[in-house]
Design a protein that fits this description.
Blueprint: E1 4-7, H1 11-23, E2 27-33, H2 40-44, E3 47-52, H3 63-73, E4 77-79, H4 89-97, E5 101-102, H5 107-114, H6 116-125, H7 141-151, E6 155-163, E7 166-171, H8 174-192, E8 197-201, E9 207-215, E10 221-233, E11 236-242, H9 249-265, E12 270-278, E13 284-290, H10 297-304, H11 308-316, E14 333-340, E15 342-343, E16 349-350, E17 353-354, E18 357-359, E19 366-369, E20 377-378, E21 385-393, H12 396-409, E22 411-413, H13 419-425, H14 429-433, H15 440-445
Parallel strand pairs: 1-2, 1-4, 2-3, 4-5
Antiparallel strand pairs: 6-7, 6-8, 9-10, 9-12, 10-11, 11-14, 12-13, 14-21, 15-16, 17-20, 18-22, 19-21
Helix pairs in contact: 4-5, 7-8
This protein binds ligand MV4.
The site of ligand MV4 has 14 residues, from strand 8.
């Protein structure tokens, strides 16, 4: 096991990694920006080094400063968390050349999965179901029209290096396809520095299902069941749960097997998530693989009893998985609500500021992952996640009651939060039945919170 590792991240996930390290007797070095000098992870890490100003480009994305900090403190590995440099193949490569273990997959695998079109092509070649569409990049209007004729409208134009919904455009006919190509390309160029796009059939009312996997350096692969992340607003996940209310045992088995096949095909190492789009009729397609630990990983930790972050560190240090697939027990139900400093009654506008009160729920089946405390000021420069409220129970019905109870207990003053949104969501009959798609929140909440406070109750 490592003696000391560096954490190249901030906020909730930096604290999550520190907790894992303490339980493994691994010393921690946390690099941070000036804006985070008074953060809880800075206080709890064994060492903390300020590497630059608030702006991410000059601190959390500043590779030379991070590597310098790693060299000076003599760490053996770097944990990138999620976001920032977590899926930067170039950063992983630099770590390798500096003899620092990058806690994640190899630069080659990160690079391959970062190219969504190449990843899709590779998976389709080994028989993994993918959404019908162009076999690779589409560069001209003529090619685009050809693909659309083949798969039929509506189609979606997607950025090859996309993610988070940027550089995506839907087209319903030949005329809108030409402009969809143009806008998707220019948006992708601006957001990712590369305007390459590909095209596929647009699935109208999908669900977002993902499967957590772990793989060690010795060829062992384990999956941990699915997470349903269908409740999103403008590509921001708000609620994640396991098991999915819309997946039966037969489908679940297929999803799990497919996910392990995907990981095996690329000789994946460390924690990863295979993302699927699921049709109304239960048809599922491989979408992409996320080569990092994800925000919603506690859902899987609570349903399996496995500490995924500790496993990540063990795997990176060369240890074998200490359990096999047969040892993984997924019991009951778990749900996570993301508590953001946003005004959900007002278009989810960011609401940074000082937390004059921050009192977290507890009790049976409740876990809160948060770096916040009473008196903490939420910086304006970073994302608005202030806490993850994760609740487990014997079944989904118990989880829904427990989540409402925990949301009621959560006291946050000084900023607006998404708690009122979650409280209302827990009472909505469509959500309670699990009968929703990825458009649900955008459709009913709409602009400026229209619909908020006026939902049908069951
Ligand atoms: C799609 C789709 C429908 N059809 N692809 C959104 C983010 C990116 N990872 C892929 N996304 C989608 N791709 C086809 N062919 C609908 C979405 C989509 C979506 C997917 C998952 C969760 C929420 C979503 C919200 C809007 C659109």
């Amino acid at each position: 096991m490592f003696q000391k590792i560096l954490i190249a991240n901030r906020g909730e996930v930096a604290l999550r990694i520190i907790r894992a390290c303490k339980e493994l007797s691994v010393k921690t070095v946390l690099v941070h920006s000036e804006a985070d000098a008074y953060s809880l992870p800075v206080r709890l890490a064994d060492e903390a080094i300020c590497i630059g100003p608030a702006e991410s480009r000059e601190s959390y994305l500043n590779i030379p400063s991070i590597i310098s900090a790693a060299e000076i403190t003599d760490v053996e590995a770097i944990h990138p968390g999620y976001g920032f440099l977590a899926e930067d193949a170039h950063f992983a490569e630099i770590c390798r050349s500096c003899n620092i273990e990058f806690i994640g997959p190899t630069p080659e695998v990160i690079f391959m999965m970062g190219d969504k079109s190449a990843a899709k092509k590779k998976m389709s070649e080994i028989g993994i179901p993918v959404i019908p569409g162009s076999p690779g990049r589409v560069s001209t209007k003529e090619e685009a029209l050809e693909i659309a004729k083949e798969v039929g409208y509506p189609v979606i134009v997607k950025a090859v290096f996309g993610g988070g919904g940027r550089g995506m455009r839907v087209a319903h006919n030949d005329i809108s396809l030409a402009s969809a190509m143009m806008t998707a390309k220019s948006e992708a160029e601006k957001a990712f520095g590369n305007g390459d796009v590909y095209i596929e059939k647009f699935v109208e009312s999908p669900r977002h299902i993902e499967v957590q996997i772990l793989a060690d350096q010795h060829g062992n692969f384990v999956h941990f069941g699915e997470r349903d992340c269908t409740v999103q607003r403008r590509h921001q996940k708000l609620v994640e749960e396991s098991p999915s209310p819309m997946v039966d045992d037969k489908l679940r088995e297929k999803l799990r097997k497919t996910s392990v096949d995907v990981a095996r095909a690329v000789q994946y190492v460390n924690a990863g998530t295979v993302e699927f789009l699921m049709d109304k009729d239960g048809t599922f397609y491989f979408m992409e693989m996320n080569t990092r630990i994800q925000v919603e990983h506690p859902v899987t930790e609570m349903i399996s009893g496995i500490d995924l972050v500790k496993e990540q560190i063990r795997i990176a240090s060369g240890e074998r998985l200490s359990f096999s697939q047969a040892d993984v027990r997924l019991e009951g139900a778990v749900m996570e609500c993301r508590i953001n400093a946003e005004d959900s009654a007002n278009g989810f506008m960011p609401s940074p500021g000082k937390l004059t009160e921050f009192i977290v729920p507890a009790g049976p089946g409740v876990r809160v992952d948060s770096h916040c405390y009473t008196g903490y000021t939420i910086p304006t420069q970073y994302d608005s996640l202030i806490a993850k409220l994760i609740v487990s129970g014997k079944d989904r019905a118990e989880v829904l009651m427990r989540m409402k109870r925990a949301l009621d207990e959560f006291i946050i003053s000084g900023v607006k939060t998404t708690i009122p949104f979650h409280r209302e969501l827990m009472d909505m009959f469509q959500f309670k039945k699990g009968e929703i798609d990825t458009n649900f929140i955008d459709n009913i909440w709409g602009e400026k919170g229209v619909g908020f406070g006026s939902q049908k109750k069951s």
